[in-house]
Amino acid sequence: MTAQAGAILNSASAWDAVDWRNIERNICRLQARIVKAVQHKKWNKVRALQHLLTHSAGGKLLAARRVTENDGRKTPGVDGELWDTPQKKLQGVTSLKARGYHPMPLRRIYIPKANGKLRPLGIPTMRDRAMQALYLLALDPVAETLADGVSFGFRRGRGCADAIEQCFKTLCHQNPSWVLEGDIKGCFDNISHQWLLDNVPLNKPILRKWLKSGYLEKQVFFDTISGTPQGGIISPVLANLALDGLERRLRESFPLRGKGSERGRAAQVHLIRYADDFVITGHSEELLKVIVKPLVESFLLQRGLVLSPEKTVITHVREGFDFLGQNVRRYPNGKLFIKPSRKSIETLLSKVKQIIREHIGRAAHILIKRLNPVIRGWTNYHRHVVSKRIFARLDGAIFRMLWQWAQARHPRKGCRWIKQKYFERVGTRDWWFFGKPDGTDGWLYRVRLFHASSVKIVRHVQVRSGLNPYDPSWEPYLTRRTVVAPHRSRS
Prior knowledge:
Layout: H1 2-9, H2 20-39, H3 43-54, H4 57-69, H5 86-94, E1 106-112, E2 118-123, H6 126-146, H7 160-171, E3 178-183, H8 187-190, H9 193-199, H10 204-211, E4 215-217, E5 220-222, H11 235-243, H12 246-253, H13 261-267, E6 270-274, E7 277-282, H14 285-301, E8 313-316, E9 321-323, E10 326-330, E11 336-340, H15 342-358, H16 364-381, H17 388-409, H18 415-422, E12 423-426, E13 429-435, E14 447-448, H19 475-484
Parallel strand pairs: 1-4
Antiparallel strand pairs: 1-2, 3-7, 3-8, 4-5, 6-7, 9-10, 10-11, 12-13, 13-14
């Protein structure tokens, strides 16, 4: 690996000449060795292997490829530089050196949150992003090996569907009946730097420089005294490492096996976590309020974190609660149903309405091309829960919006004329909204609206809790899972 990748860096070879498959194979071998060393608690060997990976030419090439091919590749940092040509990419790879490295301040921007507030993001420079991606290659195998089995956020091979399926498996019986809905106040912004430096198995000087790099807002420099910036490639893994261990802490107080297991099983305390959002079940409200919640607060306090008093509530399953865009509720007949939350539905309809308003003067085929990805993405996310009736209602609501759009475009035309121009029958489905570019005719050029009700409801098969994508022993399982259902392998 080193000879082949190093030869590319030391020559004028084109970026496209890199043998990515061979480099990925060799980096995977190093990561597998890191996993094995962590499993055997050989921390000196872990550090040696991490040093080998982060100083390898292959690791640097993979890091540069990641930051130049992801969605943020066109977003510059404070230096305004982009690696948008093969020459710049190779020059960037050669600049990834730990000796003499000093990260530049982050560029602070704000994006809107669902509650109307603004979420701060810190945008690193391309070089700093590539350095984070490089060290992430060495840190992620350690994080995956040490992670809680019920943590599903920002992890390879896991996703929201796994967390929701875990909710169903935990709550589908009559007990537990109570849920602590936990939300950490400013998780990314308040994690203790000292805790990260003391507990994250990574090059300490490099990690300290990232944490203390500061940010620029309106050309004014601000120090960072806590937290890891939202926007950094390595930040989600650092947050996961800070929150991992909560499940073990709960099991120490409520064991399922061995001494005290009878009391532990009766308490029905189970954790389901996705990033900084989590729920903890229990057999009674008093148990969650008096014992579990103080235990969680003590765990978070060591990491400089606190629970949000407004969003952290204790709820009975009969009343239902929202988690990851889904509503989980046990109905009077005793059955547990998980459906898209009302807030998620309203957000989708508001977005569709906004798109239609913005395209009041545009052609139908342009509007359809803008709407289809939004509708398809939302329905694919919710296709694993009880959504069929909601999908049909969404189609009805979107149809009414489109009918009003068509009437607004042609106020002097009758309903029959509008129907013939924008709606057609295809097979047994009537009133299918369609459009076609100007100057074209025939079925070949027609663009049709995607219907939410056309998506089949498929029960998600949850990933095994012990999965480690960097451990070669799990490779056959991942291969079978990908072949049977490719969407299950997505994180």
